[in-house]
Specification:
Helices cover 31% and strands 21% of the residues. The protein is α+β, with helices and mostly antiparallel strands. The strands form four sheets. Strands 9, 10, 11, 12, 13 and 14 form a six-stranded antiparallel sheet that branches. A four-stranded antiparallel sheet has the order 5-8-6-7, with helices on one face. The model has no long low-confidence stretch (mean pLDDT 88). Belongs to the D-alanine--D-alanine ligase family.
Length: 341
């Protein structure tokens, strides 16, 4: 069976397009990094995948590549965690400065999505259930949360890959971690710890937003939070994340409805992951956060969700890039790529 939403960049567009691939480990050759772990492997895989698609790729690994306008037609900016707050917005901002089309989402939408407090406010505005939370901006007065809790999750308000996340049993511990994160330059969000099932809804651009099959994260011990080191393969873990497609029809319907409500505020973008916490006993479903321009590694959620439909990693990436090119008026309407399901 062929899914008509899978797309291909026309050969004529490929032949005239010059693309900058901007990522911290774009020139590292695919070796595991001592600090970023498997993120370096992911960057190399994206580079080689874009080349396999047939694009003329110029790799770069620093923001300086965008200080002056480069001689390219399109930018794939994966450079974040740049060593300063909100660094994920800089490459898109520099592209905007030069009028260069780029993959992902506009800087203002990236900022909204990456700010977990603001994204929860968007969810609340659209009647999407969320866990209770409180945000502590640097310089604000700090008082204990007004909601009930047994354990608390304390983390940077713009954390990625669980960096800086800590689960604590007392307000004394929570306050100490808030102060520590503030001292490192981060705003903080605090919410109750709920050790249940994490569910992600991947969304990519095709003919409008395309919700790929939701995937549930099913670890052996749902009561233990995964560390940054585990997510980046800096410590010994299982080969792949324990992900399974969601099968429950009623849950799928709710996930689709909630994600559609959030898309009203965030669309257009090229790819992202909407994350929820699900209690299979009570049926409670709560929005947690949204990650736009998230990890596209073949071992991670978006690619594995596409794989359940018979869509290869290369076809997925080409579909996402083709949508972005068309969205920004660079190429003609893309042709379809037949994929066996």
């Amino acid at each position: 069976m062929t899914d008509s939403r899978v797309r291909r960049i026309p050969p004529a567009v490929k032949s005239r397009l010059k693309v900058m691939f901007l990522a911290k480990h774009a020139l590292a050759g695919g070796r595991l990094d001592a600090e970023d772990g498997s993120h370096a492997i992911y960057h190399h895989e994206m580079l080689t995948t874009l080349q396999a698609i047939g694009l003329d790729i110029e790799p770069a690994n620093s923001y300086e590549a965008l200080w002056a306008k480069p001689d390219v037609d399109f930018v794939v900016p994966l450079l974040n965690r740049g060593g300063f707050q909100n660094s994920e917005m800089l490459a898109p901002l520099l592209c905007e400065r030069h009028g260069l089309p780029y993959l992902g989402a506009s800087p203002i939408i990236r900022g909204l999505a990456d700010d977990k407090h603001l994204s929860k406010l968007v969810a609340k505005r659209h009647d999407v259930p969320t866990t209770p939370w409180v945000a502590y901006r640097r310089g604000q007065h700090i008082s204990a949360p007004g909601f009930g809790w047994e354990r608390l999750v304390v983390k940077p308000n713009a954390s990625s890959a669980s960096w800086g996340v800590k689960v604590v049993d007392s307000w004394f511990e929570a306050l100490a971690h808030v102060h520590d994160l503030h001292a490192q330059g981060h705003d903080v969000i605090v919410e109750p710890w709920v050790p249940l099932v994490d569910v992600a809804v991947p969304v990519i651009g095709a003919d409008g937003p395309w919700m790929l099959p939701p995937m549930a994260y099913l670890p052996d011990d749902p009561g233990r939070v995964r560390s940054y080191e585990e997510k980046r393969n800096l410590v010994a873990t299982s080969a792949d994340d324990p992900l399974e497609p969601v099968r429950d029809e009623a849950l799928l319907e709710r996930l689709g409805a909630y994600t559609a409500a959030l898309l009203k505020e965030l669309w257009p973008f090229d790819y992202g992951r909407f994350e929820y916490r699900y209690d299979p006993v009570t049926g409670a479903l709560k929005f947690m956060e949204v990650n736009l321009s998230c990890n596209l590694w073949s071992k991670k959620t978006i690619s594995r969700a596409a794989g359940t439909l018979g869509i290869s990693h290369e076809a997925l990436v080409e579909t996402i890039v083709a949508h972005s090119l068309d969205r920004q008026g660079i190429g003609k309407p893309a042709r379809r790529l037949a994929v066996a399901a």
